[in-house]
Amino acid sequence: MKTILVTRPMDEAAPTAEKLEAQGHRVVIAPMIQIDPVSFEIPDDDRSLIITSKNGARHGLTNIGNKERPIFAVGQETANEAKRLGFTNITVGPGTARQLVPILLEAGISQKRKYTHLAGNVISYNIADVLRGEDIDAEATVTYQSRPLRSFSAGVQEAMEEGEIDVALFYSPRTATTFEEAAAEYGRSDWLSKMDAVCLSTRVAQNLIGPWKSVRYAIIPTEKALFSLLDE
Fold first, then answer.
1. Domain range spanning residue 130?
2. Domain boundary among 101, 118, 145
3. Are 49 and 61 in contact (CB under 8 A)?
4. Which of 145, 180, 195 is the endpoint of a domain?
């Protein structure tokens, strides 16, 4: 059994914690990002929708009535969130926005599709810009906003101070960076040296620059692959 720190936003951290606890681990939650929905104009019916995260699906698709709208999703977890909301016409792409581009280009050219990316206020890879560079009609619509939380509860601070945390899990570059910034603001970057960092992808791992005990990443950016690293 390991004690695992989960840094995801709270609505995503809770189900992750349940899975880890079912595997026998102890879980400590320290959300590094707060997610809030924003008002936005529903894209025209003739536009296919791109979702690159569960938050994009959760906050972007909720008020769209036509459940047969074409959806292009990054990864199975994002697609599953769209399915949970009742959407049926879903193309599931690989685990990153960059890897989804060839699928979007093929459909955009052969089927003359127009796209709307249902995105957050912070976009790490601007998929709409890439598609427009290939003369495909694409736009990004902000459906939620995220803000960093650079603070730890007293319980989390105590657990890190006592060296009780074995592993810190990171699902996104932004949570990884925010966690290190928070530790630095507390003047306690030494906390990192007591923990292993386990990341969803190489891109997430590349954002960690602190003195971690070790940094590992999943070869395939899925939660199953991420969890498999905990047994090593």
1. 37-145
2. 145
3. yes
4. 145
Residue-wise pLDDT for 83-111, tens only, equals 999 999 999 998 788 999 999 999 988 88
Beta pairing partners, 74: 93
Residues 6+ apart with CB under 8 A from 224: none
**Per this entry, what is the length of the chain?**
232
- Asked if residue 39 lies in contact with residue 63, where contact means CB atoms within 8 angstroms, the answer is no
Q: In whole angstroms, what is the distance from residue 110 CA to residue 131 CA? A: 14
Contact status, residue 78 vs residue 56, Cβ threshold 8 Å: yes
Strand partners, 117: 50, 140
Q: Rounded to two decimals, what is the model's pTM?
A: 0.80
Q: Which two tokens stand for residue 147?
A: 């803000």
Residues 66, 98 share a domain: yes
Residue 142 host element (H or E): strand 138-148
